[in-house]
Design goal:
Protein name: Sugar transferase, PEP-CTERM/EpsH1 system associated,Glycosyl transferases group 1
GO molecular function, one term: glycosyltransferase activity
Shape: elongated
Number of domains: 2
Radius of gyration: 21 Å
Low-confidence stretches: 323-338
Distance between the termini: 26 Å
CATH superfamily of the largest domain: Glycogen Phosphorylase B
Number of helices: 15
Structural class: alpha/beta
CATH topology of the largest domain: Rossmann fold
Strand content: 5-15%
InterPro entries: Glyco_trans_1, Glyco_trans_4-like_N, Glycosyltransferase_grp1
Largest sheet: 6 strands, parallel
Number of strands: 11
Organism: Burkholderia stabilis
Strand order of the largest sheet: 2-1-3-4-5-6
Order of helices and strands: EHEHEHEHHEHEEHEHEHEHEHHHHH
Keywords: Transferase
CATH class of the largest domain: Alpha Beta
Helix content: 40-55%
């Protein structure tokens, strides 16, 4: 199966934020490892200038025609501006993954993204909330989150916790991103000190490579998420893979992720007082969680997500070209019928 991935975020493409889109990169690499997949990548540099999305129209269309792709898979709604051309003038099937801001963000961005969804053979939402916004536009809509690299994000026996008695609390992004709501995070830490007498080390997942993110989460005592909006937050899943407790507002699919995971808590609203109390409980407990077990049960590791993607591709692809990529269970069922 020949696949073209079109994305506005990819590892190393944005010099100012080189780790942007690492989860897309990991998804591409997992597909390549899975076998029977040839994957090319075209990056739309929308981080430079929004005009890049329009300028990508001809570039994507020409590559899609020349490459004889079975699937053109877009990541992020704005990246899919060329989807109508690809659908109407090539034989490729169009898949669009929506990541959150494209469907839940500014009105103009939502309008463009929802228009492009109508030209897809299949849409993917990284959370059920996103998928629910798409199902009215495209009846073939699946919820498939970005995966966690299970070989990297795993606990080691020699992992050291905080070098001192002061526990580490992680903010899962850059404080400069307004949608991540750093002011609430900062308020919670101030209240934690004032009301509970607990001092912590504050650390941010910002400008770190993958190994550094893993090491930070392995040494931390808790990840605190205060975002205004999310899809299926990668930082929460990576924390779970390392059994790091998470305290979070109810955003994206965090409630589904953390259901049955302890210690940790999802707070219904953006209440600083409740977040402070829950964070204090987690820090006082001083225990790791059962997050990795929950991730495995959800099928959120790389190999699981690759299998789901390939099954979706096969379901929309022309039978003569993609029959060999259908899941083993389908082949087994057909053999039993004979």
């Amino acid at each position: 199966m020949n696949i073209l991935v079109v994305t506005n975020m990819y590892l190393g493409s944005n010099r100012e934020s080189p780790w942007q889109g690492v989860f897309v990169t990991e998804q591409v690499e997992a597909l390549r490892r899975s076998g029977n997949c040839s994957v090319d990548v075209l990056v739309v540099e929308g981080y430079r200038d929004k005009g890049e999305y329009l300028r990508s129209l001809g570039r994507v269309w020409k590559k899609a025609r020349a490459g004889r792709y079975d699937i053109v898979h877009y990541h992020f709604g704005l990246s899919a501006c060329s989807a109508p051309l690809v659908r109407l003038f090539t034989k490729a099937r169009v898949v669009i993954t929506f990541h959150g801001t494209d469907i839940l963000g500014p009105l103009w961005m939502r309008a463009v993204s929802k228009t492009m969804a109508c030209f897809a053979h299949a849409c993917i939402g990284v959370s059920a909330e996103i998928s629910s916004r798409l199902i009215r536009l495209n009846s073939r809509c699946a919820t498939i989150p970005c995966a966690v690299n299970e070989t990297l994000f795993i606990e080691h026996r020699d992992d050291a916790r905080a070098e001192s008695d002061v526990p580490i609390v992680v903010f899962p992004s850059s404080p400069q991103r307004p949608e991540k709501n750093y002011p609430l995070f900062s308020q919670v830490l101030r209240q934690l000190s004032a009301q509970h007498g607990i001092r912590v080390q504050e650390r941010h997942i910002d400008g770190l490579d993958r190994s550094e993110v893993r090491d930070l989460l392995a040494r931390a005592a808790c990840l605190l998420m205060t975002s205004a909006r999310e899809g299926s937050p990668q930082s929460v899943k990576e924390a779970m893979a390392l059994n790091l407790p998470v305290v979070s507002v109810d955003v994206g699919n965090v409630r589904q992720l953390l259901e049955g995971v302890s210690p940790g808590m999802v707070v219904f609203d953006h209440d600083a007082g409740r977040l402070t109390n829950e964070l204090a409980d987690v820090l006082n407990a001083g225990a790791r969680s059962n997050g990795r077990e929950k991730l495995a049960a959800l099928g959120y590791f790389s190999a699981d997500v690759s299998a789901k993607l390939k099954a979706l591709y096969a379901s929309i692809c022309r039978p003569s070209r993609c029959a060999h990529d259908r899941p083993d269970v389908e082949r087994q069922e057909s053999e039993e019928m004979q």
